[in-house]
Amino acid sequence: MTNKTSKKRAEDILIDDDLLSHPKGLQAIPELDEAELLFANNIRKALKTQRKRIDEREQNELQDRLNRSIRQHQKRRRIGQISSIAAILLIALAVVSLVETNRSEFLRFASNFSVDPQAGQTKLILEKGNDLKITDKEASIKYSSITNSIEVNSIQQNTKTTLAAEMNLHTLLVPFGKRTKITLSDSSIVWVNSGSKLVYPSRFDDNKREVYLEGAAIFDVSHRADQPFYVYTDDLDVRVLGTMFAVSAYPDDETVNTVLERGKVELKYKGTRLIGYEKDILTPGTKASYSPEDGAMNHSQVNTRNYTSWKDGYVFLEKKTLGYIVKKIARYYNVEIHVEDEQLASETFSGLLDLRNNANQILEIISEVINIDVEKDHDRIIIKRKQKQ
Amino acid sequence: MRKEINADYLLWERLKKGDTSAFNELYGKYADILFSFGMVYSGDKEYVKDCIHDLFFELFKYRKNLSETNSIRNYLFKSLKRKVRSKQKGRLQLIYTAESLEWNDSGEGDGGEDLLQDDIQKLAKAIQQLPERQQEALNLRFIVELPYSEVASIMDISLESVRTLVYRSVKTLREDLKDNQITVLFYVMRSY
Fold it and tell me: Residue B47 belongs to a domain with what CATH number?
């Protein structure tokens, strides 16, 4: 490569990869002219000093920012997918005349077991006091009329129990901090939220499908025109054909809320009548708030996502106060959270919370966005306004 | 080199499947050099960071549509160049600063610590008189220290053309600096 007879100029040296990558450096090559070599070397070195670097801190900051962008993007996409599915499945169904039900009998049975919000386990009570216990935070239960069994799946356990031949009422009790997705024998899916009770038959009757709910659940009901689906709560009944909706009827909440994502449901409640019942049809995108206390029923247009997103593991918040958000997190995770500053508690925020994180992680994410400090005091989490530095 | 391409290829495959850890590995591997590279085309640090953010974010967003490539490295350089230049239409912003010498104090022995700031400023001035393409080639080769083959690919010209650009630029510098009786770079030879 090198030529001893003709003098190499700096420019000849600097365009020669072989010379530039000489393991001992340019000065180690004896046949090069000293002055040219040094000029070449110095240009190279002078330029090298001009390299601008990103320091480690900046590099990490940029990486964090990038990962935040990606997470946000993924969540946005997930919402997009859910709503497009909802739009496709939106089916308007004719409401058939009300079939007399054995509601009172059903309700009497439902009062046999009550949910203990502080219990550490989700409990599934079968016939003859046969109990299945689930310690995991999330579980999925599936009734299959084909294999004639109940499958319980969670991180820690996978069990299969054979269904009794006769029809029995089963009770699912979900304490605070846990959730269960249950597929009923007609393949309707119910997501049962924290602190809730669901009572349902192991097999549905040929003419109708009935369940009882206390607490909050989302129903995705399979369409069977000749077999209407009823959700009973203490104060209000929902009659559906094939649809997706959420009901929240916690005994300590003042109102029973029904939110319809798609399809059509009919609500039946006492209302202000002395005798008989009032009926209401709910249209998609509407929330019906019923107050059993004074019989008032209010309909409002809502973003249904706000009420159903917990089944997908996140909560969509739209201009909610920190106090509200914290209460929700506390119920969902069964933790005690205290906001120290009242003004702070009334500040509003919007965004998505990924419920797959634990309560601490969620609060950490929130504290990244707003100026709060999250402290832990034994079992309590305390939220403070960040001290100015 | 072969080995590195293979490692990149595997990263690429994982990325296409949506593996975020592959994505973070890729970022860790290239963030530093991409930043230095971007700064050849813009003097604005924050702007270059924004461009790197957008580059990686889009890479993730459109990962499913990414074509097969043997060189992610090359893809990253070319995309970043396009990004940096697209918004700030026009010229290269080659900014030479004396302050960037500072980091070299603790650097490896072959840095520029034995060069005087003043000399570097003079050289910088001379470089800024060069045609833009010559500056680009020179900077990519000696500031970012990319091999000629990569510089050629980034500039979309042949290897020979890159060498010619650098050849001409160094020749001009040598002559300019001599003509102006600036012994700058000859002066330092004492230090050897």
Answer: 1.10.1740.10
Task: Look at residue B158 and tell me if it is in a domain.
Answer: yes
Cβ count within 10 A of residue A356: 12
pTM for the structure as a whole: 0.46
B106/B79 same-domain check: no
Residues whose CB falls within 8 Å of the CB of residue A304, separated by 6 or more in sequence, listed in order = A246, A259, A260, A261, A284, A285, A287
So what's the pLDDT on residue B134? 92
Give residue-wise pLDDT tens across range A182-231. 999 888 899 998 888 999 998 888 888 899 998 888 898 887 778 889 99
Report chain A's C-alpha Rg in angstroms: 32
In chain A, residues 32-71 whose CB comes closer than 8 Å to chain B: 34-35, 38-40, 42-54, 58-59, 62-63, 65-67, 69-70
CB contact under 8 A, B24 and A14: no
Do B81 and B103 lie in one domain? The reply is: no
Question: Can you give the pLDDT at residue B32?
Answer: 93
- CA-nearest of A214, A201, A249, A202 to A101 is A201
Task: Inspect the interface and report whether the beta carbons of B166 and A15 lie closer than 8 Å.
Answer: yes
Q: Considering the domain A92-306, what is its CATH architecture?
A: Sandwich (2.60)
Which domain covers residue B150, as residue numbers? 99-191
Nearest CB to A47; choose among B56, B142, B188: B142
Which of 3.40.50.10800, 3.55.50.30, 3.40.50.12280, 2.30.180.10 would CATH assign to domain A313-385? Answer: 3.55.50.30
pLDDT recorded at residue A183: 92
Q: Does residue B93 belong to any structural domain of this protein?
A: no
Q: Is the dihedral of CA B130, B131, B136, B141 positive or negative?
A: negative
Cβ pair A65:B53 closer than 8 A? yes
> Is the model's pLDDT at B162 over the cut of 80?
yes
A160 touches chain B (CB under 8 A): no
In angstroms, the CA A219 to CA A160 distance is 24
Q: How many domains does chain B have?
A: 2
A6-15, A98-107, A346-355: least confidently modelled range: A98-107
Give chain B positions within 8 Å (CB) of A73: 57, 60-61
- Among the listed residues B143, B163, B144, the one whose alpha carbon sits nearest the alpha carbon of residue B152: B163
Positions of CATH 2.60.120.1440 in chain A? 92-306
Chain B segment 124-183 residues within 8 A of A by beta carbon are 124, 138-139, 141-145, 147-148, 163, 166-171, 173-174
